[in-house]
Amino acid sequence: MNIKPIVAVTMGDPAGIGPEIAVKALLQDNVTSICRPILIGDAATLNDIIKRLALKATVNAVNNVSDARFEPGVIDVFDLENVDLETLHFGEISAMAGAASFESVKKAIDLALAGEADATVTGPINKKSVNEAGHHFAGHTEIYAYFTGTRKYAMLLVEDNLKVIHVSTHVSLRQACDLVKKDRILEVVGLLQDGLISLGETNLKIGIAGLNPHAGDSGLFGTEDDEEILPAVEEARRRGFDVEGPVPADTLFSKAATGFYGGVVAMYHDQGHIPFKLSGFKWNPEKKQMDSVKGVNITMGLPIIRTSVDHGTAFEIAGKGVASADAMVLAIESAVQLARYRKTAYPAT
């Protein structure tokens, strides 16, 4: 695209690090050189963060995307005026903060559906605060699916060589086992390949994790691998996918980290998230904080583009000015890549 895409970035929970990492990211040249970012949230909150961190930036509060300036050093904010700074406390769960973060997400979705934004990027929210505000969703993925009317979707995590999609995410472990079904596995294999192609990945070999230890070991440790996962692998091959599995999870991810697989299918949330975060999250034991937090969360299957940081609100360091914007920058870069691919592959949209 000759014209840089407009990317709507939500501020996340105002009591967490979302506003901080959003501002830090939008002040970087490598972000503004590839897109036209606009923050969705509360302008007063963003002004407060800029003053606290003594950042060289000004806020341009707008009520329409068309009023954004998209200039270096200027943070364009689609101002929802929904945070009471007098009652906001960093690191605390509150219905007010939950409502503000939810409204930011909803506005970003609306702008993308209306064609006013080419992609959306979400800052971290606190699920408890959102639910206390009366919005009963398990997370961003479910919010996006509901308001876009999407039934077939999946969470794809991206960090360097690791690209991990999930059969299930925000459910109990007991329920996750019941959701390991042939049709769902086939569905996420297709979504994963679409994601790999959209991100410009040329290695389309997909590794599919087993559910049980040693992928069930011929039924000794469970039957799901033989009865659901293996038939899905065989059917995927018949459909032309380059797949391997079920592979025991304790060996699958070590191979994936080297780039052997273009992407992998995890059967449940922690099976995919733990190796992913071991790769992208770097803890400093001396400082007792993260030196770097990398990783992008992409919701596949939506009619609009949504990427996100793959970390939480980090209440313990909110307002201290030490939060890393690495993941936010990566999420924006991924959103731009997806927007460029979509414009090229579907020029009429």
Question: What's the helix and strand layout?
Answer:
Layout: E1 6-10, H1 18-26, H2 29-32, E2 36-41, H3 43-52, E3 58-62, E4 74-79, H4 95-113, E5 119-122, H5 127-132, H6 140-148, E6 154-159, E7 162-166, H7 173-178, H8 182-198, E8 206-209, H9 224-238, E9 243-247, H10 249-256, E10 263-266, H11 269-280, E11 281-284, E12 289-293, E13 296-300, E14 306-309, H12 326-345
Task: Walk me through what this model shows.
By secondary structure, the protein is an alpha/beta fold. It has two domains: 185 residues, 3-Layer(aba) Sandwich (Isopropylmalate Dehydrogenase), CATH 3.40.718.10; 123 residues, 3-Layer(aba) Sandwich (Isopropylmalate Dehydrogenase). The strands form two sheets. A twelve-stranded mixed sheet has the order 3-4-2-1-5-14-13-6-7-10-8-9, with helices on both faces. The two termini are 13 Å apart. The mean pLDDT is 94.
CATH C-level name of the largest domain: Alpha Beta
- CA distance, first residue to last residue: 13 Å
Q: How much of the polypeptide forms β-strand, as a percent range?
A: 15-25%
Order of helices and strands: EHHEHEEHEHHEEHHEHEHEHEEEEH
The structure class reads: alpha/beta
Residues in helix, %: 25-40%
CATH architecture tag of the largest domain: 3-Layer(aba) Sandwich
Q: For the record, what is the CATH homologous superfamily label of the largest domain?
A: Isopropylmalate Dehydrogenase
The neighbouring-strand order within the major sheet is 3-4-2-1-5-14-13-6-7-10-8-9
CATH topology call of the largest domain: Isopropylmalate Dehydrogenase
Let me know the largest β-sheet: 12 strands, mixed
Kindly state the number of beta strands: 14
